[in-house]
Design goal:
Serine Threonine Protein Phosphatase 5, Tetratricopeptide repeat, about 0% strand, globular, 26 helices, mainly alpha, about 425 residues
Length: about 425
């Protein structure tokens, strides 16, 4: 295997011409520059510990910056130095190739290991998952020895990232059966899986486990539990947990706020909102959405203006929420102000926002402004065509719409009402 690697990896000439990749403009040497200097030092022996550490450091640098070409040259140095059997260096090589997307090179290096090392297996499993090879990761996971918390957690993360919630939960159950103690990352992933599949009893059992393993002090874990209670519509449990949290971050506040809003408890949400120490755009957007959903457009618009006064700019979700609400209530004045903000912020180039603006003007009976927005916008968006066609239909302007809108727009239309429009006018 080593011989094949020697043929597949270009050898490194130690001339300055071939080491241009270490030319960083910095007073402090990078790990690559340090390795170069160390290798060319007449005082250094290639089995020296400093040299081995320099190799590991340089490989880590290549992994971080995805410098695979430089990493391959370091691989050549390792082969020449006879250090491939060094476990730390070998694992660093596997990690470098995996992070750079060279999974076949990582596997070749992994296969050259004399035995299955748990750390090497963890790195290889992570590499498979990172590069979308979940089946290979699972196969290696099943045969690897001495699985630890990192092994189980890495495999669970792979499943959750690919929406394989049941498989992630099964791995967690195997982990508990094996007596391996989970960490905060493990619990965060299993809670995320149960959010999709579980109910209130699973949530309470997980909460009990979190307390048992003394992880309830981790804000990441508590916030995910809080989210799970809110998803299960158990706001009483959510509030109890929230009140007991020793530490809260902005995500914790926003999760609890969103739980109240989704339940229609806008007054409780507003009370909580006023207590948030450092509100962000999500906090404001959640509160605004609560008012919009209940038809409180005036309160929503007041919140919006207060947010701008605090120096926080809206995001695209908030913009769509507000202008859709103004379209439902035909509040043309407030909608015009939001449209002005959209243009200033550059959101008018987003296809879904453009379609929302067209829909807003059409809903307010201003089909002329809807057409103008369509003309100045990007005309290739199906959603914009749909909004314009629906606007003509809603305003009873069938013939005018037929004269303006070409046949090919109907052929691309995805809404049945647009199809009905053309059948009606045929």
């Amino acid at each position: 295997m080593i011989k094949s690697l020697k043929h597949s990896i270009p050898s490194l000439s130690l001339s300055s011409k071939n080491l241009k990749w270490v030319s960083y403009i910095s007073s402090k040497k990078t790990p690559l520059e340090h390795l170069h200097a160390l290798y060319n030092s007449s005082k250094i022996h290639l089995q020296n510990l400093d040299y081995e550490l320099a190799l590991v450091s340089a490989l880590k640098h290549c992994s971080t910056h995805l410098f695979v070409s430089q990493g391959q040259q370091i691989h050549s140095l390792i082969l020449k130095s006879g250090l491939l059997s060094n476990t730390f260096i070998q694992n660093s090589l596997i990690n470098m190739y995996a992070r750079c997307g060279f999974v076949s090179h990582a596997k070749s290096t992994f296969d050259s290991c004399s035995r299955l090392d748990p750390v090497s297996c963890n790195i290889m499993i992570s590499g498979y998952i990172r590069n979308g090879r979940l089946k290979d990761a699972r196969e290696l996971f099943e045969v690897m020895p001495n699985k630890g918390c990192v092994s189980y957690t890495t495999m669970m993360m792979g499943f959750t990232q690919n929406d394989c919630w049941r498989e992630a939960i099964e791995v967690f159950k195997d982990m508990r059966y094996a007596g391996v103690v989970p960490n905060e990352v493990t619990l965060t992933n299993v809670i995320s899986s149960y959010v999709r599949l579980g109910g209130i009893w699973e949530c309470r059992m997980l909460h009990a486990l979190v307390v048992k393993v003394m992880m309830d002090g981790f804000v990441l874990v508590s916030t995910n539990l809080l989210h799970m209670y809110c998803i299960c519509s158990s706001l009483g449990d959510a509030k109890s947990l929230f009140d007991e949290m020793e530490e809260r971050n902005i995500f914790s506040w926003n999760v609890m706020l969103n739980g109240y809003v989704k339940a229609g408890l806008v007054e409780l949400a507003r009370e909580l909102f006023e207590r948030i120490p450092m509100k962000d755009v999500v906090s404001w957007g959640t509160m605004i959405d609560g008012y919009v959903q209940l038809g409180g457009l005036s309160e929503a618009f007041m919140m919006y203006r207060a947010m701008l006064h605090d120096g926080i700019s809206p995001n695209d979700v908030m913009i769509v929420d507000l202008i859709s609400g103004f379209g439902r209530t035909k509040a043309i004045g407030e909608g015009l102000q939001i449209h002005s903000t959209i243009v200033k912020a550059g959101f008018d180039h987003c296809d879904f926002i453009q379609a929302t603006i067209i829909h807003f003007y059409a809903a307010c009976g201003r089909i002329d402004l809807a057409c103008l927005q369509f003309e100045v916008g990007i005309k290739g968006h199906i959603a914009s065509w749909n909004a314009l066609i629906a606007g003509f239909m809603r305003n009873g302007m069938i013939e005018a719409g037929r004269a303006i809108i070409p046949r090919h727009a109907w052929e691309r239309c995805v809404f049945m009402e647009c199809h009905d429009f053309w059948l009606y006018t045929k």
